[in-house]
Prior knowledge:
By secondary structure, the chain is of the alpha/beta class. It is built from 9 helices and 15 strands. It folds into 2 domains: about 1-75 and about 140-205 and about 305-330, no CATH class; about 210-300, Rossmann fold. Helix 6 (about 240-250) links the parallel strand 11 and strand 12 (about 255-260).
Amino acid sequence: MKIWQKKSLITWLLAPFSLLFWLISQILVALYHKKILKSYRSPVPVLVVGNISVGGNGKTPVVVWLVEQLQQRGVKVGVVSRGYGGKNKQFPQLVTPESDPELMGDEPVLIAQRTQAPVAISPNRQQSIELLLSQFELDLIITDDGLQHYALERDMEWVVIDGERRFGNGFVLPAGGLRELPSRLSSVQAVICNGKSAKEGEHLMQLEPEWAINLKTGEKRAITDFYHQSVIALAGIGYPPRFFTMLQDLGIHLEASHSFADHQPYSREIIEPLQKGDLPLLMTEKDAVKCRTFAQENWWYVPVSATFSEKSTACLVEMVLDMLEKRAVI
Length: 330
C-alpha cells in the first residue's frame, strides 16, 4: 500500500494501534522464548525463508533457487507453506505439480512444479512437517514464509527484503507495512535484497527473465522476441509494479498494465476484457498456474529465476550445508 511508504497524517492517527500491535507481538515472542507457550521442534532441520514486511518481496523465487541448489548437491528437501489464497479447508495436504492452485494456493503449486520437491500446506507448520516426514525421507525442511510463526522452532532464518521499498515508513502494522522492526534482521543468518543496491552485509538477488511460455500450447520463446513489441501485462502479486518495470526495462512496450491483488483468483470473464486485439498478454508465472484451464493462444507467462553472485551463492549454500552437518552430529 502506498500509504505505508511515507509518513502522513494517517500514519500518526494509526500509530497507537501500531504500538499495540508491536507490544502484543513482543509479548508473544517472549512467551515462546520462555517456553510458556509450546513450540514444535522438527526431527530434521528447518530453514525459514520469510520477511518482516507485508507484500511480495520475492520469497518464493528464493525458495525455488535454494531447493534447486541443494538438490544439485544431493540434499533431500521438503517445503511447507501456509497455502495462502487456496480454498482447501482440510489440512495438512500434499501439493503436487498437478494440484489445483485454487485449492492449494498458487505459490505451493508453483514451487512443486518448478522443483518437483515434496510440498505440504497447512496453517499449522507442524502438521505439514509431520505429513512430509511420514511419506518422504528428508534432510531439510524449508518453510516458505513463517518468520513470525514462533510455534515452529527453526535452525536458520533468511529474510528477503524489497530493495526498492525497503522498510517503507518504518512503522509496523497498521500504520506501516512492517510485521517486525528492522532490528529483527540482526538475529537472522542471511538478509537477501531483491533488486536495487544491497546494503553492507546483504546478499543482492536479481530476478532474471529468460523465456516467455505460452499458456495454451507450451511454446517457449526467448523473452528477447518481445523487444519493442506492444503487449498487455497483468500481475496479481504482492508488488505488481516490479513485474511491469521488468518488462519495460527489457524494451517491451506496455500498451496497458493491470494490477490485481496478491493471490487473485482468476476466470475467463476477468481476463478476456483486458485483451486488445491480437496483442500478446504477458503475466507472471504465479498468475499462470491459475489461468491454464481457460488460456487463450496469445497468453504468455514470464518465469523469473533468482540469481546471485558467485560469492553470495557460495556463502548462502555453504551456510546451509554447514548447518546440516552440525545438526547431524548432535
